[in-house]
User: Fold this.
Amino acid sequence: MDAGNLIDFYNEFATEEKCAEFLAKQRWGNEIICPKCGAIGIKAYKLASGRLKCATCRKPFTVRMGSVFEDSKIPLQKWFFAIYLCTSLKKGVSSIQLAKYLGVTQKTSWFMLQRIRYVFENGTFEKLQGVVEMDEAYVGGADSNKHAKKRTKALTGKGAQGFGSKNSKTPVVGMVERHGKLHVVVTSDTGSKTLMNLVRKHIDIDATVYTDEHMPYRTLPKIGYKHQSVNHGAKEFVNGMASTNTAESFWSHLKRGIDGIYHHVSPKHLQMYCDEYSYRWNTRDMTDGERFEDWFANLNGKRLTYKMLTKRA
Assistant:
């Protein structure tokens, strides 16, 4: 898509028909996949109602079926506008502001944004390679709990008591390649077992891992990783090539965005917000139009109902 601004974007998707054609192309390309029977490259008949009918299973379907758009009464034109804002605005857009833009309720816009974030989630990534920085941050809660949590973490490797409560800070672990991709994972603690499991899952064994002085990272050489650290407690922020400055830069951006746009994010939904910010970070070299199109690459099979969302742990 070649939309350089909102006027171009509006002209590109001026009608619901244009939106549906674009969605079909992004989802299926030149081979329609029936969401009912799974047949690929089917012949589909267009019904008077606007729905399609599979020539294989003879069942009707729509271009929305099997995606986050299914069962939504919101026009695709409004959906696309919400996706464009969520993928292009550096700090995101609040549900209150989006509700004003779209002329819907705040509850509806919040659900739309959560479904958009759900498509960011569970992306398929190769393991991080080369030089990888690993760091933890604490998001949400009251500032008065920050130092208590750090003291508890240093002694036990776990976050402060009351994880998940309104005033507790939630631990988040970030792993980022120098000049490359980023993974962010919300955890319940930052102990050795949790961190080493994340390392094995997300970082290639041949990578060099840079961290701060947090004690569990001393296990890295024992499990086969090259490791160097900086001692933030002694005001050391660079040790040769070792630093966590890239990770710290992302934390600063994430926290400013959450504090300034969303104000408060519950631990229950924090991973989805981290996925949103991670996605924009990982696609920072794309244009807004390219990032908008790229969002649709993970759309198929993503179905999120309000009941599923509110029950997510």
Notes: DSSP finds eleven helices and eight strands in the chain. Residues 131-282 form a domain with the Nucleotidyltransferase; domain 5 fold (CATH 3.30.420). The first strand starts at residue 44 and ends at 46. Confidence is low (pLDDT under 50) at residues 146-164.
